[in-house]
Please model this.
Amino acid sequence: MTDPYLQIENLSFSYPAQGEGEAAPVLHGLNLQIERGSFVAVLGRNGSGKSTLAKLLGMILTPTSGKIRMGGKEITDPALTEDELFALRAGVGMVFQNPDNQLVATIVEEDIAFGPENLGLAPEQIRARVDSALDTVGMRAYAKHAPHQLSGGQKQRIAIAGVIAMRPECILFDESTAMLDPTGRAEVMQTVLALNKEGITEIFITHNMNEAVLADRVLVMDEGRIVLDGTPKEVFAQADTLRGCGLGVPQVTELFEVLRQQGLPVGEPVISEEEGAERLYALLNQ
Amino acid sequence: MSTKLEVKNVSYEYSPNTPFAASALTDVSCAFEAGMITGLIGHTGSGKSTLVQMLNGLLRPVSGQILLDGRDIWENPKQLSRVRYRVGLVFQYPEYQLFEETVSADIAYGPKNMGLDGAEIDARVREAAEFVGLEADLLDKSPFELSGGQKRRVAIAGILAMRPEVLVLDEPAAGLDPIGRETIFDAVRAYQQAREATVIIVSHSMEDMAKYAERLVVMSESRVILAGTPDEIFRRADLLCSIGLDVPQITRTMMRLSELGLPCRTDIFTIEAAKEEILRLWGKERENA
Model:
C-alpha cells in the first residue's frame, strides 16, 4: 500500500557560520518517508528544526547533505536547472504564520491570481482557478474585498486559496494557526481537513496539541532529530517523552494520566474529549 | 479589593466623520483590581487591542474616562509620559521592536528615558533579566543572536525594568511552544507577586487563562459583555462559544460527560479540579457497589 510522496534520506542542514562562530547544525541525518495523500502533523519546541525542514521541502533552503525525493523527483539534485526548480516549487505550496505577510494584492481575487499569472496561464484558465480556489476555502463572497477587511482566519484561508490555485500536490503549513482566535483556527482546520480529503498531501507544523490530534500521523522533532513517530494516540501516550521535548499533551490526555496515577482503571490513553467523556461515563456508571 | 485602573463609559471610533467610520469601543466600562491578574478575552476585532491602547494613553477616548488610582489619565495630557511609566504595555510580537546593540542596552532604554542614574539603571536591568529568566551572559550579546523565545523575554524585560505598577500584555505567548508559554506566564506572575503589580493579559488561549488569570473580562463586538472570576465566566460555555470563543478542553469534556447523563460538576476548568471531581464520583460509585 505504500505510495511514498516524500522520501528523505540522511538529510542534514547547518546554517552557515556567522563571524567567528561555528556553523550551527539544525538537522542531523534525518530519514523519513511520507505517504501520498497523508496528513502529517509535526510538533517540536522552538528551535527543534521543524521550520528548517519545511523550508528544505519548500526548496527555500538547500541541504548541507542528504537527499529529498518528492513526487518521484529528486529536488536536491544539483544538476536541476532554474526552470526545473521553478516547476517543482509550483507543486509544493507553503502557508506561513502571519497572514499579513503573505497577501500581496489589494483585492482578494487578484491576490489568488498572483501565482497562476506567474505560471503564464491564459486569462480564462486563471479565472477558473481563482473561482475554484475561492469555493474550496469557502470565500467566494469575498472575492472583491480588500484583504485588510478580513479577519485573521479569513486571511489565512485566502493565503491557502492562493496556494491551491497553483494546484500543488503538497501543502506545508508552518504554524498557520498560531496568530488566530478560536473561530479562525477552526475555519483553517476545516479547510486543511477538506483539502486532505481531496488528496493533497499535507505537512502541518503546529504547537497546538488539539490540532495535531486531527492528523493521521504525528512526528515529534527535538534537536534536529525525529524522536517520536506514530498515530496521534501512539504519540500522545508518551507524555513523559513529550514533556522532555518541551511539549505537552491535550488536557484530556493529561487528566487520564493523573487518574491512572491515582489508581483508577482508566485504560488506554485518550486524545479527544468525546472519547474521554465516553470512557469516564462507562467507568463511573458500571 | 481595590480598583487600580478603571475604564468608565469609554467609546472610541476609527476614522470618525468619514464613510469608513467604525466603532471600536461602545460605552465600555470595566475595573481592574489592584494586585490581580485579569485576563481580557474576545474574538479578533472585538476591541481588545483598542482597549489596551487606551489604558496607557496611546489612544484617547472619544468619550468616557480612564482612571488610574481614581484620577483621569487625560487630566493633564503633558503628564502622559509619566502615566506610560506607570502603565507598561507589551505589544504583540514585541521582539520585533528590539533595536539596541546589546540585550542590556535594549532593556535599559526605558529606565534611561525615565532619567534614572547609571547604578539604578544597572540594578533594574539585572532585576528585569532575572524576572524573565535571562542568564547574565546573554546581556552583552546582540538581541539578534538570540532565539525567538529569548528575544520575546528581552522585550518584556524592557518594560519590567521601568517597574510599572500596571503591566499590560497583548498576547504575550503567541507563537511559543508550551514550555515557552509557561516561562513567559511564570515570569509575569513572578513580577506581579514581587511588585504587587496589577496585570492585564490579552489572550486567545482559554487553557492559559484558566491557569493564570484571577479575573476575566470578556469582550464582543466592541462591548464588555461579561466580567468575573474564571469560575463564573467558564460556566457560560454556550455564551462564549456563540461569540467565537471557547472554553478549556477539560471543561468541554466535563460538559460532555454531563450530557451523557452522569450527574457531575461542569464548572471545572483545570485538570486538578477535574481530577478531584472524578475521584469524588469514583468514591461514590464504590460506596454504591
